[in-house]
# Entry
Amino acid sequence: MIAEELIVIDSDSPLWLSTLPIFGSVLRFVQNKEVYLWNGWNKQQIQSFLNSLPSRSSLVAGVWETKAEIEGSHEYEKLIIGLVCEVIDGEVSSIRTFDALTVVGLKPSNELEPGIDDAREIIRYSEMLVAPVAWALFLEKTTWDEWLFANVGESTAVDKGQQLATFAQQGRCVLIGSQTKYH
# Structure
């Protein structure tokens, strides 16, 4: 699931700080037995997904949150999670934020917008710096939270791939992949 020697790049990025709670949950999966369950996620489900990826690939996730600048003013979208995970032979071997992609030409994360143009650029630069993108997910924070944290207290795993595919069909997220089926 996670390589023994995981490399974390640009851990001082503000985007990294927002992923720490997720990273903590992943570590619990690694440390616990196969029966560990967290919000409908289980270790076997995650490992099966990672094993289905090409031997060297990357996973991309961008999450934006809609905020008001000042009460009564217009809303804007702020990137709060921007991650690229390098996967080698079914294990996450490195994690970096979108900020790390600026060295190859991506604009700063505070300028990235939730649209197809920036999504293409994020994918392009991820492939230049990391590995071919197997899956890229771009969505709003409310959908992210619903997908990631749904099923609190459930005692059985949920098909998170199907749930994500449903969100994509509803237009609640953009899921771009080189794989032929949803996981």
